[in-house]
Design goal:
The chain has a domain at 3-138 and 195-207. Helices cover 28% and strands 24% of the residues. The protein contains four helices and ten strands. Strands 1-2-3-4-10-9 form a six-stranded mixed beta sheet, with helices on both faces.
Length: 215
């Protein structure tokens, strides 16, 4: 499976997942629910496209030995939400977030999304060939520029449409105490959301070569 095929498979699987969510097919749900369904839809899509059986792992445990820790939790171990690979070909890592408006956990959630991007960049050094951040939410805080302006002490961690992150920019959580350490990413990113007019919106950010999966 090539990177292009991974892009197409993830694209179709995410579209099916968000469609089912907006049809209220899952009832009460959490990130684990969505991880399992996304993994299922990827597997089914690969079979439908005539791909040989892929190896699928949810919460795949990975480790860095004698190196810098993974950025998100400053730990030598991490768990990739969804990981799939076809034999010895392209490995795909997905971090999935679902931010419910009712949980009222912003802006910490925005920091966590950037921390997931940092981890995905690290996975590409050793464990995967391409990565994806899939962020789903029903809260305008994340995707509506007309919603309340981000506070000055956390505005570095913006995910809103057309926001552009430039590689090497240090992002600082300026509250005291800070929620997490500063984050610096290796790549440029442009954020774009999809599913206007529906309750659940989705942001997909590709990490790795040929980044052409648009939000």
């Amino acid at each position: 499976m090539t990177v292009e095929q991974c892009n197409a498979t993830v694209e179709r699987a995410v579209n099916r997942l968000i469609g089912e969510m907006n049809a209220e097919a899952f009832g009460e749900m959490n990130e684990a629910t969505l991880q399992h369904h996304l993994a299922l839809y990827i597997h089914l899509d690969a079979l439908r496209e005539g791909e040989p059986s892929i190896n699928m792992t949810i919460e795949k445990k990975v480790r860095r030995d004698g190196q810098q820790p993974f950025p998100k939790k400053n730990s030598l171990t991490a768990g990739i939400d969804v990981f799939f690979k076809q034999e010895d070909e392209t490995g795909c890592a997905i971090e999935l977030k679902c931010f419910h408006a009712a949980n009222q956990r912003e802006p910490n959630n925005r920091y966590d999304a950037y921390a997931d991007l940092a981890n995905l960049e690290t996975y590409l050094q050793e464990h995967a060939n391409v990565g994806y951040l899939v962020l789903i939410t029903d809260h305008k805080h994340y995707f509506d520029p007309a919603f309340r302006e981000h506070r000055a002490d956390t505005r570095d961690f913006c995910l809103r449409p057309e926001h552009r992150y430039l590689a090497g920019t240090e992002l600082i959580y300026r509250k005291d105490p800070p929620y997490g350490a500063p984050i610096i990413l290796e790549n440029d990113y442009l954020f774009g959301w999809r599913n206007d007019g529906h309750r659940w919106r989705v942001l997909v950010v590709q990490v790795g070569p040929e980044r052409n999966l648009q939000g």
